[in-house]
Predict the structure.
Amino acid sequence: NDQVNFEGLTYRNGNDHIKKTYSYEKNVVGHIFQSEFTKKLVQEHFGESKCNVVINNGTTIDKQPKKRLDHLKDYEKVIFCASSWRPNKRPDDNLAVFEHLKKMVDYPIAFVMVGDFQWCSAWSDDEDVYIIRRKLDDDMMKSFFRSADYFFHMTYLDNCPNSVVEALAHSVPVLCSESGGTGELVQELDSGIIAPEKFTTKIQNTYEPPSMKDDYVSIAEQVAENIEMAHNFGWSHDLVDISNVADRYLAFLEEVHENYGS
């Protein structure tokens, strides 16, 4: 199960794929959730499942060395931020934390924001902010991850975002919100900063997320103190390695077959 869809009027049809798995109780005996948050969310709204497991997303671990893209070589530090941008992804909050961070440090630092902005906008007149308003191919994305010292993902109520998994697989520490399931990976791997935030699993419009404005300064201070983490990372990649994730899927399917197979 991916998520409970909170996006306004799409709530009902957007969750049909989850609802059906509960309607076909005799045929659906197992549920795989992306995070503990997702599990709590789905079971709160649709009921307990008889057999379930939490398995986070995974990807291929990048084993190439860090290397700045040419146009970023003059910067001592680079913050990277990428998404399919929607209001709950909080592009403005990501930008604002960078602006505060830039005022705190005494070295050249850049902010790179990449992705499809069909559902929201982002703008800055800062010459050290680069906004690329389109999706990039895999090779270009890998180049930005290898250039990055930190990855910002301040999204409200995300489940287990692939962009964060990719950042961790490229040994890039992550700044994220406590809301949702993103922080579970960061906490498990001790691989970044989790900004405190109260949240609820009740039905709500996630396209109107609460602002983190009151926390910009404290969050930026934490990033400034921890920005060397990318060069001194100590976390294991095992949790996000796609080979291990696939093994966990297979083990669960074998468990379901053993206990419920005919």
Notes: The CA atoms of residues 47 and 202 lie 14 Å apart. Confidence is low (pLDDT under 50) at residues 7-11. The longest strand covers residues 77-84. The two ends are 24 Å apart (CA to CA).
